[in-house]
């Protein structure tokens, strides 16, 4: 079985050719160097055998087998790609869906444990990922297959946890009307918190850099961000009884893991009154393997090939 798997983003694209269970070719591309995805895939496929199946995880919605990568003005269509590259079975999936498919494939070395808990094999899994936006998904086990339950939970109503967060909510409500969890738990969410505290409207990476240098305002922004993140992770754990674990994906946590390991995140996660004991039993891990998305795309390509 010969597969192509890809994680397609506005900045970087990672492609793998998989022969059986072995990754024989892997290449990372600067997406902006190519006028179309076809051009990029053509360059990659030139050095690979013919594939039986392919799956590409894309940053954005996939509707009727079609996806647009907004930052690049790329249009990707399943049928056109399958025809152009003579791949019998080809699919496009959302990038966070791919992350969710990849989570059951992760090894302990791919994770940073935030709470050990007691993992139950085959029990539901909850996944959150703060990055450009806030992705949420659940994974359930049926038969011999893990199935993804997609979610737009990141757009559900934000619930403040204390007086400071209530003031933050009011400020964002006056600005946006509806205040979702994503307004706080994303790269721009971190900036929203930072500006609420009196900081400038800067790139999220600037806030992270200043926090690493000990800037008090940036550190306070991360403190609030992590507290809110832990609270919503606990909400997801309760919604699905995620005894298989809760996993944090997305670049914000992976690139700033020191803010998640000092106990604040887990204390917010556990702050659920009478259900604290339930949450103490749930493992919580931060995903450190940046290839989890392409792993999920490979899993979907494999399922496509198997029919």
Largest sheet data: 6 strands, mixed
Strand content: 25-35%
How is the CATH topology of the largest domain named? Answer: Hexokinase, domain 1
Based on secondary structure, the structural category is alpha/beta
Can you walk me through this structure?
This protein has 11 helices and 14 strands. The two termini are 12 Å apart. The longest helix is centred in the last third of the chain and has 25 residues, at 216-240. With 307 residues, the chain is of the alpha/beta class. It has 2 domains: 2-100 and 291-306, Nucleotidyltransferase, domain 5; 109-287, Hexokinase, domain 1 (3-Layer(aba) Sandwich). Helix content is 37%, strand content 26%. The strands form 3 sheets. It has a 6-stranded mixed beta sheet with strand order 9-14-13-10-11-12, with helices on both faces. A 5-stranded mixed beta sheet has the order 3-2-1-4-8, with helices on both faces. It is globular and about 60 Å long. A hairpin with a 2-residue loop joins β2 and β3.
In terms of topology, how is this protein built?
Layout: E1 2-8, E2 12-19, E3 22-30, H1 37-45, E4 53-58, E5 62-63, E6 66-69, E7 74-77, H2 78-84, E8 89-94, H3 95-102, E9 111-115, E10 125-130, E11 134-142, E12 145-151, H4 163-176, H5 187-196, H6 204-212, H7 216-240, E13 246-249, H8 251-255, H9 264-270, H10 276-280, E14 284-287, H11 292-306
Parallel strand pairs: 1-4, 4-8, 10-13, 13-14
Antiparallel strand pairs: 1-2, 2-3, 5-6, 6-7, 9-14, 10-11, 11-12
């Amino acid at each position: 079985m010969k597969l192509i798997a890809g994680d397609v983003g506005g900045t970087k694209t990672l492609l793998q050719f998989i022969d059986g269970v072995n990754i024989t070719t892997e290449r990372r591309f600067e997406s902006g160097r190519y006028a179309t995805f076809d051009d990029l895939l053509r360059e990659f496929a030139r050095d690979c055998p013919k594939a039986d199946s392919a799956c590409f995880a894309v940053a954005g919605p996939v509707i009727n087998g079609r996806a647009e990568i907004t930052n690049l003005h790329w249009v990707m269509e399943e049928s056109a790609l399958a025809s152009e590259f003579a791949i019998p079975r080809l699919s496009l999936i959302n990038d966070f869906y791919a992350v969710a498919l990849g989570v059951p494939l992760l090894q302990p070395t791919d994770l940073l444990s935030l709470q050990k808990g007691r993992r139950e094999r085959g029990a539901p899994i909850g996944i959150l990922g703060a990055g450009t936006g806030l992705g949420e998904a659940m994974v359930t086990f049926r038969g011999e297959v893990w199935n993804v339950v997609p979610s737009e939970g990141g757009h559900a109503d934000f619930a403040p946890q204390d007086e400071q967060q209530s003031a933050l909510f009011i400020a964002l409500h006056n600005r946006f009307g509806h205040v979702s969890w994503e307004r706080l738990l994303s790269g721009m969410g971190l900036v929203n918190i930072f500006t609420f505290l009196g900081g400038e409207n800067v790139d999220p990476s600037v806030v992270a850099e200043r926090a690493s240098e000990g800037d008090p305002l940036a550190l306070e922004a991360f403190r609030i961000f992590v507290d809110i993140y832990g609270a919503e992770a606990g909400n997801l754990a309760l919604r699905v009884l995620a005894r298989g674990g809760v996993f944090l994906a997305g670049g914000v946590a992976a690139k700033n893991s020191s803010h998640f390991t000092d106990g604040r995140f887990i204390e917010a996660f556990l702050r659920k009154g009478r259900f604290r004991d339930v949450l103490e039993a749930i493992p919580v891990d931060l995903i450190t393997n940046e290839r989890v998305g392409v792993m999920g795309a490979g899993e979907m390509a494999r399922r496509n090939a198997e029919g």
